[in-house]
Task: inverse folding
């Protein structure tokens, strides 16, 4: 159980366009989901905490207008990279765990590799 | 604040060698501790976890024991295989809420020679 599906796995877009990444919990509900960014050969950097039915909480230094997060249901969170530029190219990963399960491990999506050209 | 420090890589071992990847943490209260593994081009997979002091997490021959006295959660495996080549992340989350964010160490790249 506890599967997280992330889509798309890879996307190439032109500079100035917007890209939406979806994160779905397939067999559990998640009030909270997390979005991470990973640069090559580096660790995961938490970008924001996505909260169902309310505004996301962004980490310091992350532009909320650049990275729009919507968590409209208990099984879906989306991250939209707006007006993408080459420096936004990165590996984006979401994660979640079942609501109320404080001792359950976090499940991660398979990641989205974004390349902005 | 909470933080995780883990052994810097890369670590290169021969097949069947003994593996230790050190991980120490700083946290208030009683965090849950995790080891995640990331294979090339993929997301993270939970390898093992421990939620309280002296708990031992184990999976696929890997083990780690939650040591509160030394604030450590070192990953060990008695005999590594080529298929264990990956990046390993130690992580923690503050206890008490499913909304607690997870904090990662810097990752340790492991390469196993046949």
Result:
């Amino acid at each position: 159980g506890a599967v997280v599906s992330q889509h798309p796995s890879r996307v190439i877009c032109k500079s100035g366009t917007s890209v939406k990444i979806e994160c779905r919990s397939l067999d559990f509900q998640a009030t909270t989901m997390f979005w991470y960014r990973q640069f090559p050969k580096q660790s995961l950097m938490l970008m924001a905490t996505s909260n169902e039915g309310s505004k996301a909480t962004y980490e310091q230094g992350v532009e909320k207008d650049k990275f729009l997060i919507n968590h409209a249901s208990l099984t879906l969170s989306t991250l939209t990279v707006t007006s993408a530029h080459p420096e936004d190219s990165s590996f984006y990963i979401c994660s979640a765990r079942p609501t109320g399960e404080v001792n359950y491990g976090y499940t991660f999506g398979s990641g989205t590799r974004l390349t902005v050209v | 604040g909470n933080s995780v420090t883990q052994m810097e890589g890369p670590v290169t071992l021969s097949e069947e060698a003994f593996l230790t990847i050190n991980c120490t943490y700083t946290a208030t209260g009683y965090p849950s501790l995790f080891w995640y593994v990331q294979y090339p081009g993929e997301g993270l997979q939970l390898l093992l976890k421990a939620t309280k002091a002296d708990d031992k997490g184990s999976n696929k021959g890997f083990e780690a024991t939650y040591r509160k006295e030394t604030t450590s959660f070192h990953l060990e495996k008695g005999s590594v295989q080529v298929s264990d080549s990956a990046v390993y992340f130690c992580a923690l989350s503050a206890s008490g809420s499913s909304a607690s964010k997870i904090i990662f160490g810097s990752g340790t790249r492991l390469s196993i020679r046949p």
Observations:
- The mean pLDDT of chain A is 91.
- The radius of gyration of chain A is 13 Å.
- Chain A has no helices and eleven strands.
